[in-house]
Design goal:
alpha/beta, Nucleotidyltransferase, domain 5, 5-stranded mixed sheet, two-stranded antiparallel sheet, 5 helices, 7 strands
């Protein structure tokens, strides 16, 4: 029994000894692994386009002055043309029909000049107007849509329609 107790004391003594773990190989592995992971990581540069959405309002206010009237311009970008129209709660169809224009062109760069003139005319007659609804066809290029949005917002350092709304065909 004495031998058994001595053997337990030796075993206990062996377990109490500090064992040093060699951490150098693990540190070397991380030294190589971290730069490799950083090089293989991909970082995304996300850009956003500020756009708003149309709101239906029940406006029962009587507008007495013409400069308080708001007109919403509607622009349809199609294959070979740009159609311009306008809607308003305060104006009749006769007044709004004066803004109905069709700009024919195979190249949007040429037609954007006429497009700006029409938008400036609407803004000049109704300065409170600030919303434009842009309705592109499915085959219109992304760059063309963005260019139309930029032109509608600002042209010649003049803010025309700051709220540009993208919409599908109504």
């Amino acid at each position: 029994m004495k031998g058994y107790i001595l053997m337990l004391k030796k075993r206990k003594h062996r377990l109490d000894e500090d064992i040093e773990v060699d951490m150098v190989p693990i540190m070397n592995m991380f030294l190589v692994l971290i730069p490799f992971l950083l090089m293989s990581a991909s970082f995304f540069n996300i850009k956003a386009i500020n756009a708003s959405y149309p709101v239906i309002s029940n406006s029962s206010e009587n507008v007495s002055k013409e400069n308080k009237i708001k007109v919403t311009a509607i622009i349809e970008l199609m294959n070979n043309q740009i159609q311009v129209s306008a809607i308003s709660d305060s104006l009749g169809e006769e007044e709004l029909s004066t803004f109905n224009k069709t700009i024919l062109s195979n190249d949007f760069k040429d037609s954007f000049e006429n497009f700006v003139v029409i938008l400036k005319t609407i803004k000049k007659q109704y300065p409170e107007s600030d919303t434009l609804i842009l309705i592109p066809d499915d085959n219109i290029k992304y760059e063309t849509i963005i260019k139309a949005m930029d032109i509608a917002r600002n042209s010649d350092n003049l803010t025309i329609f700051p709220n540009v709304v993208l919409s599908g065909k109504i």
